[in-house]
């Protein structure tokens, strides 16, 4: 049985191999993706926020809550990667390792590969495969790097912004505009000093925030992920937002935006690869013989020609 057949039969090893294919940009992965698109409708939840806010611990608690309902869940932990070697820390998976023997849970780390918004285009391809595999829930935990951490809103159906009372998280969120992408806001580590004050500040600020699609009101929730407190309310709020999307016909627009993001990510990747290889074009721009736009157009055209 080949990988395509094994994948269709629900073989987790085939899923892992298929994810490696799409992350590496192999042609075999592209063919599998064509067949997988539009195959399922999982709840896709993005967890974003600054490093140290407890996103991985919160994801671990959500896994437990989902499994207690008898539903399956996959996690994509997008880790920071070196802009030089492309290597990633891949440390988030360690916090969730207690679920590794559960057949209803699948956890995969992926490198951001220097993507400006914190997500690689391969992340969206991986989501497509996980949906086609039949998972009920997919959690995407992002690198959490501040202002650039906005692409998750284009990928997830529900975006959860995780903050803490300490380290000025709320102030940074205001400055970076991350508040505008959140469908739910969670103040984690609520037992730390200043928790209630941060919640009040967030709720007051949301009163003046631009209106969300179909009148959605962004809730501010509190959790202490270390002991599981608040997880049930968070899961219920995510469900409520998903129902809101369904009732107002917004899920399909999310799917289209995800595809648009994936296309843009491929173009960005082609440009980066071309800029590294096209030394003659770089020299032409530096000497004033070509504009950056002309050089970029040539690079993209040459990159696409073999695949046409």
Provide a concise account of the structure shown.
The chain is of the alpha/beta class and 308 residues long. Helices cover 47% and strands 13% of the residues.
Explained architecture:
The structure is a single chain. This protein is of the alpha/beta class and 308 residues long. The chain folds into three domains: 1-36, no CATH class; 40-248, P-loop containing nucleotide triphosphate hydrolases (Rossmann fold), CATH 3.40.50; 261-307, no CATH class. Helix content is 47%, strand content 13%. The protein is built from twelve helices and seven strands. It has helices at 3-8, 12-24, 27-36, 55-68, 121-133, 152-155, 169-176, 195-206, 231-247, 251-277, 279-286, 292-304; strands at residues 43-49, 73-79, 105-111, 137-141, 158-163, 184-187, 220-222. Strands 3-2-4-1-5-6-7 form a seven-stranded parallel beta sheet, with helices on both faces. Helix 8 links the parallel strand 6 and strand 7 (220-222). It is globular.
Structural class: alpha/beta
- What is the β-strand count? 7
Q: According to CATH, what is the class of the largest domain?
A: Alpha Beta
- Main sheet specs: 7 strands, parallel
Q: In sequence order, what are the helices and strands, one letter per element? A: HHHEHEEHEHEHEHEHHHH
Oligomer: single chain
CATH superfamily of the largest domain: P-loop containing nucleotide triphosphate hydrolases
Strand order of the largest sheet: 3-2-4-1-5-6-7
Count of domain modules = 3
Cα end-to-end separation? 30 Å
- Tally of contiguous helical segments: 12
The shape is globular
Q: Mean of the pLDDT scores? A: 82
- Proportion of beta-strand residues: 5-15%
Extract low-pLDDT stretches. Answer: 82-92
Helix content: 40-55%
Please give the radius of gyration in angstroms. Answer: 20 Å
